[in-house]
Design a protein that fits this description.
By secondary structure, the protein is an alpha+beta fold. It has one domain: Sandwich (Jelly Rolls). Helix content is 18%, strand content 48%. The chain has 2 helices and 9 strands. The strands form 2 sheets. A 5-stranded mixed beta sheet has the order 1-3-8-5-6, with helices on one face. The radius of gyration is 14 Å and the shape is globular. The protein starts with a helix and ends with a strand. The relative contact order is 0.33.
């Protein structure tokens, strides 16, 4: 039987077929339902790029992870098992507001993953810059 987080990430994988794509210098507010994950894809650049992700989720803590899209499955397994991984480029857990930075290697698609393990839906403002 699959654990609750397996279902969340399975749903995220299916959802990712129509993943939101973000550009740097983008700002949007998204809804992250209880017990779900919300992925965003950052397109590859021809050279290493440093990205900054700012989140604000008043009243509902969320977790934010940045990884390479090719490492998505391994990262999801680590998140579910609550283990650290060198495949997670940056993380911020259970926060209502914060900023994290990550360096994305050249020619790699990155993924920003928002998760909500709280008891109510989160309205999260996400801002990506370089």
């Amino acid at each position: 039987m699959l654990s609750a987080w397996k279902w969340v990430f399975l749903a995220a994988l299916v959802f990712c077929a129509g993943c939101n794509r973000v550009t740097l210098n983008d700002e949007r507010t998204v809804e992250v339902a209880v017990g779900t994950a919300r992925p965003f894809i950052v397109e590859a650049a021809k050279k290493d790029q440093k990205i900054k992700v700012e989140v604000s989720s008043p009243g509902v803590p969320v977790s934010v992870y940045v990884c390479l899209e090719k490492d998505r499955e391994a990262v999801e397994e680590c998140i579910e098992a609550q283990r650290q991984s060198d495949k997670i480029l940056a993380t911020m857990e259970k926060t209502e507001r914060g900023t994290l930075e990550a360096t994305i290697p050249a020619n790699n698609v990155a993924m920003i993953l928002l998760t909500n393990a709280s008891a109510k839906t989160a309205n999260v403002r996400v801002r990506t810059t370089n």
